[in-house]
Design brief:
The complex is a heterodimer of chains A (259) and B (392). Chain A is of the alpha/beta class and 259 residues long. In chain A, 44% of the residues lie in helices and 15% in strands. Chain A has a single domain, classed as TIM Barrel (Alpha-Beta Barrel), CATH 3.20.20. The longest helix of chain A is centred in the first third of the chain and has 13 residues, at 32-44. In chain B, 43% of the residues lie in helices and 18% in strands. In chain B, β1 and β2 form a beta hairpin. Chain B is globular, with a radius of gyration of 19 Å. In chain B, the strands form three sheets. In chain B, strands 3-4-14-9-10-13 form a six-stranded mixed beta sheet, sandwiched between helices. Chain B has a four-stranded antiparallel beta sheet with strand order 1-2-12-11. Classes of the chains: A alpha/beta (259), B alpha/beta (392). The interface between A and B is large, with 45 and 37 residues.
Chain lengths: 259, 392
């Protein structure tokens, strides 16, 4: 199969000698109208991939910042139908690769095949399902692959080389490496430089995966990017962007800081 | 490839970061749990600390009135006052065998929290209990009991601030602390291998009850009735009777107030649909968008929007039947058993009993009915008093 659009976007950043920027924002945050303005800003400011959160009532893999934002989106009336409709209206508008990130149940209720079709039709390139480990991924990959939709593997500090290899065999798009054993936005695990365990985990992931490796969870300030050059291909910013918006900033301003 | 399924229900829907401790636990369930050494040690603790076997009690007064032979499997007489301890003792022992020093647990009403805390104390383990902020407030007596047993109680302030959010918080904590800590899941639900592990530890209920029926009644029961929230006492009460085709298995869920539009806790018998929550594919109370809805019951231990996957599978296969009764029916059963038999049942167990009383007239006269009396009702006195005051 040919390289996915997500892989190409991240490789293009690497060709420019930089770590690809992957901002994350829950769909409909801070409100339904302003969300699309934020996405426009992220794209215009050079985000290589944009992750859009599909809010879920019980987000076990997220920390308090993302959970709070997601629950607010649900109160704002966000559902998958709205996300995919609105994305469809904007198809072709974004240079950034688009990834949907969330949990399996809303996707199951939407209908796995219908979701794959509608997401691909709306210009989505990949999907991260935080509660789908390798053991449960076969049916989902079978639904996604015919539509060219990547199921992006999520691995972490405690993922053995053997398990990484399971993901690598079927992995498409990029691999998402979780930098903390804990949840997003709780602690910055490397305020004082990149810990050896993360360095070792990333080195292992880079060796096992053919696709690019993105580092996510726990990134807090721009200086961290310098240390990552060469170690990872992309860096995800979730809680940090939400905090920036909560403090009255906008996405264009956030990307200035990060560039 | 697919493991941990009961029919189409079950599975292991967790972040990859939780797979290493789940795989470690799977191995322990296969290797340590069935070993003679483990079973001998568990058996001794169940006898000498928990007080097993619990009696099977014939309700002479109610039987006369209802025209059936009503038996109670007395889990209320287990140490701690409920069946929960069967599970926590087993998991605490398993924690020791895994070489871990700490247990964490979720709790709704606090019964599993108390049972975990006392088991941790018994085995010299540290213990942290995650409990929704709303529950911490309305179950302060149980919070104090947990703290007396030496557990740390963490109040969970996210989402609906109840059991489902306590489970979310406990799963998150387990991701961070998996190397030193075992997650003592409270019911026969969650990701594989928990539904299997908890069932194996609770099956002692039906092992004893089956032998006691043969010894005391000279026959197997016609019905086994148990309340279902997550479903641990019910799966324990059913398990040994599953091959006995003549024994009807009845799971009783909580219908809540029964008023249209009010929350309930009956994904099997009232209104549920298949979906994924807390690591399992099962029947859930959810919106058409797949968002989990709040649940409600007068019995705090039944207040959960999902159900253990093996129950969902027994419903699908028809081996067990699931029905629900309202708060009113449960409360009436609570009062009836207290007055007529001198036994005060937990409000959870009162649902099973309420179903048996309500449906006795549909049974063949003299039918032998075993109700799993999963816990004692002392903990519920405030709820009962408030409810009666409101009704008056």
């Amino acid at each position: 199969m040919s390289a996915s659009y997500l892989t190409k976007r991240i490789e293009a950043a690497r060709a420019q000698g930089r770590v690809a920027l992957v901002p994350f924002l829950p769909a409909g945050y801070p409100d339904k109208a302003r969300f699309w303005d934020e996405i426009d800003q992220l794209d215009a400011a050079g985000a290589d991939v944009i992750e859009i959160g599909m809010p879920f009532s019980d987000p076990v893999a997220d920390g308090p910042v993302v959970e709070h934002a997601s629950l607010q989106c649900l109160e704002n009336g966000v559902n998958l139908k709205w996300i995919l409709n609105e994305l469809g209206l904007r198809k072709g508008r974004y240079k950034a690769g688009l990834v949907l990130m969330g949990y399996l149940n809303p996707v199951l209720q939407y209908g796995l095949d219908r979701f794959a079709l509608d997401a691909a039709s709306a210009g989505v390139s990949g999907v991260i399902l935080a509660d789908v480990p390798f053991e449960e991924s076969a049916d989902i990959r079978a639904a996604f692959e015919p539509r060219g939709l990547d199921l992006i593997p999520l691995v972490g500090l405690n993922t053995s080389a053997e398990r990484m290899a399971l993901y690598a065999k079927n992995g498409r798009g990029f691999a998402y490496f979780v930098s903390v054993l804990g949840t997003t936005g709780v602690q910055s695990s490397f305020d004082t430089g990149l810990p050896g365990a993360i360095r070792a985990g990333l080195t292992q992931a880079k060796a096992v995966f053919d696709i690019p490796v993105a580092l996510g969870f726990g990134l807090k300030h721009p200086d961290q990017l310098k240390e990552l050059t060469g170690l990872v291909d992309a860096a995800v910013f979730g809680s940090a962007l939400i905090r920036h918006i909560d403090q009255g900033g906008d996405s264009a301003g956030f990307m200035q800081v990060w560039k | 490839m697919k493991k941990g399924y009961f029919g189409t229900f079950g599975g292991q829907f967790v972040p990859e970061l939780l797979m290493p401790p789940l795989l470690e636990l799977e191995e322990a369930v296969e290797r340590i749990l069935p070993s003679k050494e483990f079973q001998d040690e568990l058996g001794q603790v169940l006898r000498e600390f928990v007080g097993r076997p619990t009696p099977l009690t014939l309700c002479e007064n109610l039987s006369r009135e209802l025209g059936i032979t009503l038996w109670l499997k007395r889990e209320d007489m287990a140490h701690g006052g409920a069946h929960k301890v069967n599970n926590t003792i087993g998991q605490a022992l398993l924690t020791k065998k895994l070489g871990k020093k700490r247990m964490l647990a979720e709790t709704g009403a606090g019964q599993h929290g108390v049972a975990s805390a006392l088991a941790a104390a018994r085995f010299g383990l540290e213990c942290t209990i995650y409990m929704g902020a709303t529950d911490v407030e309305r179950q302060s007596l149980n919070v104090r009991r947990m703290r007396l047993f030496g557990a740390e109680v963490v109040s969970v302030d996210s989402g609906t601030k109840t059991l489902k959010d306590a489970i979310n918080a406990a799963l998150r904590a387990w991701i961070a602390e998996q190397e030193t800590t075992h997650y003592c899941f409270g019911t026969a639900a969650g990701p594989h291998p928990f539904p299997l592990l908890v069932r194996e530890l609770q099956a002692v209920i039906s092992r004893e009850a089956r032998a006691q029926m043969i010894a005391q009644a000279g026959q197997l029961p016609d019905y086994v009735v148990a309340c279902v929230g997550g479903g641990s006492n019910a799966i324990g009460a059913f398990h040994e009777f599953v091959p006995d085709a003549g024994v009807k298995l009845i799971g009783v869920e909580a219908a809540g107030s029964g008023n249209p539009g009010d929350w309930h806790s009956a994904p099997l018998s009232k209104q549920g649909s298949p979906g994924v929550l807390h690591g399992m594919h099962t029947q859930l109370i959810q919106t058409e968008d797949g968002q989990i809805l709040p649940s409600h019951s007068i019995a705090p231990g039944l207040d959960y929007p999902g159900v253990g996957p093996e129950h969902a599978a027994y419903q699908a296969s028809g081996r067990a039947t699931y029905d629900c009764v309202t708060d009113d029916v449960a409360l009436e059963a609570f009062l009836t058993l207290s007055r007529q038999e001198g036994i005060m049942p937990a409000l959870e167990s009162s649902h099973a009993l309420g179903w048996a009383i309500k449906n006795a007239h549909t049974m063949k006269p003299g039918s032998h009915v075993v109700v799993c009396l999963s816990g004692r009702g002392d903990k519920d006195l405030d709820i009962v008093n408030d409810y009666l005051a409101k009704k008056a």
